Amino acid sequence: MDTPIIQPRFKESPHFKNFWEKGNGKQLIDFSGAEVNFKDFDKFSHYFYHVDTVGDEVVRDVYFTKKFHEASREIEGYIRNGIFETDVPESVKKLFTQTQQVPEWLDYSLLKSGAELCMRSNLDSLISLRDYCLMGGYDYAYLNKPLTATEALKKGAVKRLSETLDFWVNVTRYDALELHAKGYEFAIKTRLIHSYARLSIKKHYRQWDTENWGEPINSWDMMATYIGFSLVFLHSLQKLGNTFSEEEEKGIFHLWKYVGYLLGVPENLLPDSKKQATEYFYLWTSVQPPSDKDSILLAHSLLNESIENPILKFKFQRENLRYLHICCTWFLLDEEVCKRLQIPEVSNRKLFPKTKIIINKIYDKLLSRHARIKKGNKGQMKVLEDYLKITKNSNFH
């Protein structure tokens, strides 16, 4: 089949224009100094039909030829120890040759700065990921189609959030992305999970509409996801009253560029700066329609996660946590997006985010950067530990 030719089909739609002329998109342009237009659209649009063929080959050669747990154990061995056997499939050699070849552009001091900002921002990092990056992502209907196709809703938001948190925390610590380190391991495993999901969708989900939705988990959608972890994440931290240095800002983009590289995303799709990221993001949003019924289901599943999650012992605590996340969602996302996702209206919704901004200003004056990094790392690790305890020792499936 010839690759379809895609156009910026939603560029005249109200949801696209409102986002970029009045909403968070306009804020991103102001934040980054981006110059948005469609002159580079064709340079990027074919990636809507481009996938990580190397990862796919590994899944076909390893995961589809043996039991899942055996395949996982084999891949884990290669990740942790390298490849010493001679009878390893060519696809596996290809994958590890690419991921173990450190690119010339990699700067370890920038990786460190990016990791430090993620840790220093403590719970604001987690609020940003959940209430802006993840929730905001649900407004892009086609981006979420793989979640629908793999029936991720049935798995439940607690488990899904736990997996996202596990990945994010493990790739954003000191030296996490060194060869054979834990973050490197998470990147390779996540890459193969994407390939496994993509091949399963292609095989079993007959309704997949490639022309409109792109290939499942395609390279352009992957770019948008990593712009969520970098540009959108930074914008959210700023909205919550956090400050960051130029070095930390560069570090965030560098960190996610390298994670994207390990995940098989083409290098020219991975932005180096907030200006570049905003310009790339603008093009991608022009092929995405607004929320649909699946988006609303995903959004409400995420909101109700606070109620379902037994980390907090009492019901009133869980309801209060849900209320705080709703307040942050209204504060961080456009009102129009919140209405489309049917986020509930709550009273005094600006109080908690505004309080956070004041606290962050006080923290900046009272605590040293080093103390905040240490405190933030401890806080994030505690949240992750709680999630893993719940999902590993319970009926969450």
From TrEMBL:
InterPro entries given in the database record = Lcp-like, MPAB/Lcp_cat_dom
Q: What name does the UniProt record give this protein?
A: ER-bound oxygenase mpaB/mpaB'/Rubber oxygenase catalytic domain-containing protein
What lineage is on file? Bacteria, Pseudomonadati, Bacteroidota, Flavobacteriia, Flavobacteriales
Can you give the residue ranges of the ER-bound oxygenase mpaB/mpaB'/Rubber oxygenase catalytic domain? 155-349
Please give the Pfam families that the UniProt record associates with this protein.
MPAB_Lcp_cat
Q: What is the scientific name of the source organism? A: Chryseobacterium lathyri
